Amino acid sequence: MDKYNEKSELMKLVVSNDSSKLVRQRIELLSKNGLIGLAMVVIVLGFFLNMRVASWVAFAIPVSFLGMFIIASLSGITINVISLFGMILVIGILVDDGIVISENIFTHYEKGKKSYDAAIDGTMEVLPSVFASVSTTIVMFLPFFFLDGRMGEFFFDMGVVVVACLAISLVEGFFILPAHLAHSKGLSRKKNKSRLRIKIDNGIDYIRYKVYGRALNKILNYRYTVIAVAFAFILITSGLMKGGLIKLTFFPFVDSDNVNVELTMPAGTREFRTFEVLQEIEARVWEVNKELSENRADGQQVVISTRIDIQGSSEKGSIDVELLDGETRDLESFKVTAAIREKTGLIPVAEKLTFGARAIFGKPVSVSLLGKDLKTLESAKERLKEELSNISALRDITDNDVSGKREINIHLKPLANFLGLTVQDISKQVRQGFFGEEIQRLQVGTDEVRAWVRYPESGRSSLGNLEEVKIKVNGNLYPLTALVDYTIERGVVTINHMNGAREIKIEADLADQNEPIPPIIEKIKTQIAPALQTEFPGVRFSFEGQDKEVQKFSASVMRTFPLAFGMLIIIIVLTFRSWKQMFIVLLLIPLGIYGAFMGHGIEGKPISVFSFYGLIALTGIIINDSVVYLDRFNRNLRDGLNLREAVFNAGLSRFRPILLTSLTTLAGLYPLISEKSRQAQFLIPMAISVAWGIVFVTIFVLFVFPNIILIVYDISVYLKWLWTGKKPLPEEVEPALVEIREMKEENH
């Protein structure tokens, strides 16, 4: 462009709209947060483990990313906003398997084993549980490949990134990490610990044994009270959601640096008139800019530029208003839109006038009226628009039933029928008079000249001239008014059909983009629509826009998630060989989900469709922590501990890896959650679901999960007691332990 401008003096090229600017800002933002998250993960690892071990555990991150880049390139995945978020999401999860393996290797090493033997024994001991935990996380991300709608298109990339990274991290954790640790100086007894390291280790041991150990020992005596508290947490969270303190919406508001004004004038309006109205609106835009800019401390202009465009037909036009970038502007675009709308006011000559950014996932409110009778549909349309106008949260209520150009409809009188005339005969003569007809072609030099005949301008300048038109029949002239009656009406621009029926679509936008949409849609579905269907029996309602996108998402989740959930159950059952323990693991999932909901309330963000994508990822992480705990619990039982001792010791031994896996995931995501940039807002709900879900899940795994185990075994004991008449020991009702005892008896 610069080269062209240097050569051209008559014409210059300028950038009128650069869409890549927004993408670059988001990629820079996510890259920055990703690096901060990575640094925090390494710091957390170094705090809980010695730095050499921590560095080898963190080595899984670059190895997994490099392998993922190869797979992504073969899959056609690019580095974009969604794939980058997948990398940020997975940073903390990637080290989970490495933490469990390295911590177990370290435990074996502390028992006096050589580093080589500790690496082999420690890895093989936790291999089944680590494989199960990572596999379940991968399985929970598989539905991302099969989701419908625009959301499915977006998050396919994230699914590829996460699944590829986790699969490669599993290979790295089983083969590369143990080899590094076996030869690492981190497992050297000759190495003296620094005073800082000794203090940190003593502090961690104090929290583990003195604080957590004592607390766990006490609450195990009040297991049913603990479960009641957990159930109360679910009820409180549900109440906050029902009461609107934790808000629900379809899609979070994604701010834009552009405001689009779309104008539709009556069909047939001349282009210059449409342009004049757009110029009037443009003047109001600059008035708003002056008012907003005067209140800014930096004195910068809120509106950077405006561009008027006449779109195809002469009656349609738009104004693209470019705003100061969101980071500098510090003012939501919908507030600028509201100011422009208020300053513009009503424009009586406009048939349709809307303000705001183009919606990625459709309009917040979009309702299609379907029926066979057009007049009934038009009446229902007016009634629905009237009802929607009574909802204060809605603005710019429009429909697609736009009137066309004015048309003259001719109806024959008896005299015309008597003379044998048809509508086509009369229409042809009227057209010849007003539009003209070619009568001859003349050759003038090398040019061909066409000769047309029509009325003089004074005889065709208005519709009133129709009264003077004469129709020629068999050499006689008859006044047009003696032969026909005519009416002047607006024609039809488009004929819309949906599912074999005529359709009129009514759409509306939100006055405040932070307003929750579900209550509005619910009111339309349960109150307004039934009343209108009673008034207009032949009219059916179809909800489009964001509601339809949500329905597509819900339908695809209901189709794919049960399959993933079934695979998850199979993996857990095969790992523990116990349906009872599978049930124990699944009981933790609702607690984690409600923890994520509570996290949205704490952060002041509404729960949206994006939040549910985070919940899918969270489910896999919940399984990860619970599987690690149960694996230690089962090994304690096999070592001969009773049920309560096995639960208690499992909590103590798994305190550090569970806390560490949770903290690393939280550390990887929280820089994004705390990001105030407007470019990050549409990703924050997913990050909140995962991060806050993990915060509550960690508490539940360490304190509630042990009590769930005891209660489930209490119930099993009483059921078997009722069935056999003999009260068994808790250890005698676990199928996996019964199987082990039977195998030992067979060997003897």
> Residue ranges: pLDDT <50 for 5 or more in a row?
none
Number of domains: 3
CA-based shape: elongated
N-end to C-end Cα span: 86 Å
**Biggest β-sheet strands, sense, barrel:** 5 strands, antiparallel
Strand content: 5-15%
- Summing up helix and strand content along with how strands pair, one would put the structural category as alpha+beta
CATH superfamily of the largest domain: Multidrug efflux transporter AcrB transmembrane domain
| The CATH class of the largest domain | Mainly Alpha
Q: Please give the radius of gyration in angstroms.
A: 36 Å
| Number of beta strands | 15
CATH topology annotation of the largest domain: Multidrug efflux transporter AcrB transmembrane fold
Architecture (CATH level 2) name of the largest domain: Up-down Bundle
Brief sketch in words of this structure:
Helices cover 62% and strands 13% of the residues. The chain is of the alpha+beta class and 748 residues long.
Please characterize this protein's 3D structure.
With 748 residues, the protein is an alpha+beta fold. It has three domains: 20-251 and 557-706, Multidrug efflux transporter AcrB transmembrane fold, CATH 1.20.1640; 258-402 and 510-548, no CATH class; 405-492, Multidrug efflux transporter AcrB TolC docking domain, DN and DC subdomains (2-Layer Sandwich), CATH 3.30.2090. The protein has helices at residues 2-7, 20-48, 51-58, 60-75, 81-110, 115-141, 149-182, 195-219, 223-242, 271-294, 326-329, 333-344, 374-389, 414-418, 423-434, 480-483, 518-535, 545-576, 579-603, 609-638, 643-653, 655-673, 684-724, 735-747; strands at residues 258-264, 303-310, 316-323, 352-356, 365-371, 394-399, 403-412, 437-444, 447-453, 470-473, 476-479, 484-492, 497-498, 501-510, 540-543. The model has no long low-confidence stretch (mean pLDDT 82).
